[in-house]
């Protein structure tokens, strides 16, 4: 997802508090029997970022991002809510405050945890000058060490979401490294992810949710080659290698710790299930053209949110974002994420019930 961060002109930074409120948690959504999380800590990239990325660095702070929620651009890479918001809703808490906005948040808001994810980042450094996952965990560790926001007793019911959605791989491709090196690089990415997971657990987080990589070969930036008709199976085969290594790493970690510490969120199959849904999954929308994004640049040099020097918009947007699974060339719409989490609900519930 190399193209998800576009260098755009600078906006003045100001904050409206409405922007930082995520999905409201409610008791109705409180399905945890064995384990009742009260805090969510989030690490990763644009699938999870809810407003850390700098306005000057990202299209996610430009119209039409955020038009569904919160109603204007606020840093999420979608028309509305993203993975973090839906996981928070699932566990029954408010979406955690982005790290960048922590000093503007009241104590009450901080109690739901914190989101350290930055769009465009990976476990290694990517094409954007933003904190990789190691540095994000450093931020978390520094906050714990300072001890003024969270006490160690706060962690007995904490959950982490660790999103690794492909920026390491788009960086690999952008560097024109030979395809023959891909499998070894995938191993490095998974090994580094394992290091990160171990570290987050050692810092005291009790449950750690790890999404499998989504089918990258089905992202609109790739399927544009077939007019959004077909996924690229050779890319999905590499994704499956990543996912099987990641599942092995998680099995090893669970064996070392306690069987149910690390939870796999199978985004790969959830995406495919939603694409194929013809009504069998009532909670999931049936998308007519699931691979076709809602918001696209008018030509290949432009993206969702692009404007030219005169401020003329260089993208088109679908009539109803709820009718599209994908928002832009690599990110789901809010309705897309809602459908994915609907498909995942049963397996997530089973994972969280294990104390
Ligand atoms: C993360 O970023 C820091 C700062 O750029 C760098 O020193 C470190 O090597 C990076 N970590 C990994 C695992 O690439
Ligand atoms: C799939 O992606 C690979 C690698 O990016 C590319 O070489 C190949 O041409 C693509 N296949 C199709 C059918 O588009
Ligand atoms: C789990 O750990 C035990 C003891 O450390 C080891 O003997 C066993 O092979 C491990 N199982 C797996 C699936 O890794």
From TrEMBL:
Gene3D superfamilies, per the entry? SGNH hydrolase (3.40.50.1110)
Q: Which UniProt keywords apply?
A: Hydrolase, Lipid degradation, Lipid metabolism, Signal
**Span of the secretion signal?**
1-25
InterPro entries, sorted: GDSL, SGNH_hydro_sf, SGNH_plant_lipase-like
Q: Name one GO molecular function term.
A: hydrolase activity, acting on ester bonds
Q: Enumerate the Gene Ontology biological process terms.
A: lipid catabolic process
What Pfam families does UniProt report for this protein, alphabetically?
Answer: Lipase_GDSL (PF00657)
Membership in a protein family = Belongs to the 'GDSL' lipolytic enzyme family.
Q: Which PANTHER family match?
A: GDSL ESTERASE_LIPASE (PTHR46020:SF32), OSJNBB0059K02.9 PROTEIN (PTHR46020)
- Name used for this protein in its record: GDSL esterase/lipase At5g03610-like
Supply the source organism for this entry.
Brassica carinata (Ethiopian mustard)
